[in-house]
Amino acid sequence: MGLLTIGAFARAVGLTPKALRLYDELGVLAPAAVDAESGYRFYDPSQAAHARLVAQLREIGMPLAEIREVCALPPGAAADAVAGFWQQVSADTAARARLTSALVEHLSGKDTTMSDYRFAAGTDPGVGRDTNEDQAYAGEHLVAVADGTRGPFGAAAAAAAIEALKPLELTAGPGTELLTALASAVTAADRTVRGLSPDDEPVTTLTALLRRGSQLALVHIGDTRAYLLRNGELSLLTQDHTWVQTQVDQGKLTASEAAGHPQRALLVRALGWGEGVEADLALRTALPGDRYLLCSDGLSTVVPRDTLRAVLTSAQSPDEAVQQLIAAAREGGAPDNIACAAYFSAA
């Protein structure tokens, strides 16, 4: 079969002559020949597969400059390039979707209560310690506490765990993306903790909440805790990853026996511990009026649950709650470091 005119070739591949002329001008698909006098373009039938590929890449939105580069690659590399392009498109689309959702909620007035969160965090070395290995953080979208241990790098381990989560204040998306982002950040924190001092082998607990709109993602590892006060009821959202808690779960110890056990602080899961990180992840729905408390065991083992509930109920602000809870722990003897973060939704 001889060469085809631009019109015949356009019909054969399902394109327009205008598109073919544009592809020629941009170096994406050059004709097989051009008449020197008339300037008419002619195409070889073997170019049909190339033309259809260009058309398909245009259909997925790839710019012509990128199409030119992809078409010059071997098939395997071209496939990787197309996959990479679509991954970026998907990420950009998700980002625009989040922005659109936020704008719709803002303009419709539906986000006023859920965006109105107040927060505070604080730590205290306690009565029985000279150093403080607890860390606490509170921001508009993230609250976290961490309790480091095992020598001089315990405080650094706790700080590293929280620092790994702070970028999520701005970058995490909604829904299951929150959990994915948290899981990735915790894995990164685990690597950082393990690299601090291999000889000392520091570890740290971590409990954190990450919010987008009315969605809250919870990550937890160790014996730091998260509580929720809702409609006057105080609920514990986490389970301690300790040896005594496993004994309670197996019916070998009662809760009261575990509370006074000499090994009640022995962790079975922590960042920097074992073969790899194993954190609990959960997605929750936040409601107006919710009050969240995150704390280290320096608070939860000293301050009775009824006191936690009373302070969270009566406090006029998160900062007031944090100050009162730390004071209550010190009044109770505070043999360990204390860390807590309060996160209050508007009623």
Description:
- The chain has helices spanning 6-13, 17-25, 48-59, 64-71, 75-108, 154-165, 168-171, 176-196, 243-249, 255-259, 297-300, 305-314, 318-331; strands spanning 4-5, 33-34, 41-43, 117-124, 134-138, 142-149, 203-204, 206-212, 215-221, 225-230, 233-236, 280-285, 291-295, 338-345.
- By secondary structure, it is of the alpha+beta class.
- β5 and β6 (142-149) form a beta hairpin.
- The mean pLDDT is 87.
Short summary:
The protein is of the alpha+beta class and 347 residues long.
List the helices and strands and how they pair.
Blueprint: E1 4-5, H1 6-13, H2 17-25, E2 33-34, E3 41-43, H3 48-59, H4 64-71, H5 75-108, E4 117-124, E5 134-138, E6 142-149, H6 154-165, H7 168-171, H8 176-196, E7 203-204, E8 206-212, E9 215-221, E10 225-230, E11 233-236, H9 243-249, H10 255-259, E12 280-285, E13 291-295, H11 297-300, H12 305-314, H13 318-331, E14 338-345
Antiparallel strand pairs: 1-3, 2-3, 4-14, 5-6, 6-7, 6-8, 8-9, 9-12, 10-11, 10-13, 13-14
Helix pairs in contact: 6-8, 12-13
Key terms for this structure?
347 residues; alpha+beta; six-stranded antiparallel sheet; five-stranded antiparallel sheet
| Sequence of secondary-structure elements | EHHEEHHHEEEHHHEEEEEHHEEHHHE
Based on CA atoms alone, the radius of gyration comes out at 30 Å
Structural class category: alpha+beta
Instruction: Give the CA-based shape.
Output: elongated
Fraction of residues in helices?
40-55%
Question: How confident is the prediction overall: mean pLDDT?
Answer: 87
First and last CA, distance:
78 Å
Question: How many helical stretches?
Answer: 13
The profile of the biggest β sheet is: 6 strands, antiparallel
Query: Beta fraction of the residues?
Result: 15-25%
Count of DSSP E strands? 14
Query: Which spans of ≥5 residues are poorly predicted at pLDDT below 50?
Result: none
